[in-house]
Write a structure and sequence with these properties.
By secondary structure, this protein is an alpha+beta fold. The longest helix is centred in the last third of the chain and has 114 residues.
Length: 527
Amino acid sequence: MNTTLLIVADGAQTLMSFAVALVVIIFVTVIAIARLYKRCPSDRILVIYGKVSGNRSSHCIHGGGAFIIPLIQDYAYLSLTPMTISIPLQNALSFQNIRINVPSTFTVGVSTDPSIMVNAAERLLGLKPPAIEDMAKEIIFGQLRLTVASLTIEQINQDRESFLIEIRKNVEPELNKIGLNLINVNITDITDESTYIESIGKKAAAEAINKAKIDVAHQTKLGNIGEAENAKEMTVRVAENVAEAEKGKKQAEAGQRVYVADQETAAMVGESEATKLREIRLMENYAAAEKGKMHAIADQRIYIAEQESTAVDGENTAKARIADSNAKLAVRQAEAQRLAEVAKRQAEVEIQKAQYKAEFERLNASEVAQKEIDKQKMVIDAEAEAERIRKVAKGEADGVLYKYQAEAQGVQTLLESKAEGYRKLIESAAGDASAAATMLMIEKLEQIVARQTEAISNLKIDKVTVWDSGSGDSGKGSSTANFLSSLMKSLPPMQDVAAMAGVELPSYLGKIKDETAKGDTGGTKAE
């Protein structure tokens, strides 16, 4: 019985020990599995290397996690922290063979693109950030020089957006080969030793100043024209002909001053352009002369660096290559000296040609400008004279027209007034036109008598000589009395005047009675 109990107790203890061991194993297994699962932070790339699927050298994960198989696989991290690289590019040769300084700052980082992450795992895994920055700097230096060499100074300095696009197009593919991505490019400043960029700025400033001068001259012209217009408007009220003449004169003078100012400005701009082109040509020729020399020096430095880098392969091979390098260097130096001498001679020839062409263009521009000024002056004078003659003729015609219109209006008004007066006079005479005419004749009798009296009074008779016997004719008195009577009768009586006018005077003024007397020839007597 005791033996059976002992066996049962031992079995229970064994079972308990087995359960504890199983729990421990499971716990350890879970911990081990948990430790084999590696999570990838957002600012890193998890690189799993060793035996990976697809016969690849590594497997890169950005975000998430993966199990690491012990003994077969291992892992490491690549940091995604951006790196800022300063590129103090100096004496870079542009497309125009002008050396410029392009200091810039590049921001790069490991790319998260799946295809580029593999390049980063293959070439950057295990490298410290300074080593990665040095590698990227060398790549950026070379590609930046290549980009500058393919563009002109104007494209680099004025169109920064296109320049940055070209830099990104050349630099980014090369950085992608080592697993890096170009994040940002910042060009701090662009300068050159030949002051070409400064000359471009001066040119732009000069063009702006000249444009401002032209605008000022144009506004001055408009002001003068406006002032002349106001003066014309004020004076035309008093004397239109004089105002028009003054207007033509002022406009001609204003146009002449404006044109002369415009031509002087154009001449100054032309001289400035010619001077600028001559200086640019001189600098281009000098730069071309220096190009061969500097290119030879650059080739020498690059070749020596390449030979020194390959010297690590072996001392014997290095000695052979150094000897070959020295020989080639001597040949290149001789060739460079020859090219430099040829370029120098060519530059001198180009300088002489440029000086001759600039002087020829300056003289030609001066002569053409003077002829153009004379031509425009003659045209302006002719137009001003034609305008003056036209305005004077128009003023005279308007004056004559106004005169005749005023006279016609006066006559019309007078006739209308008389007609209205005659109408009212006939209405006052109860529609009897004869009575109205008689009344008008009565009003004029006083004037007629006054005129008759004036005619007699104005006669100047210094002496009257009468040969008279005193007996008279037919017993009618002396001849002297007859003379005076005949003189008075020679004046038309009022009744005769009224009769000639076709008007019968009222009866209270008397009537004409014919008396035929012997010896009396046509005497009349008023009753």
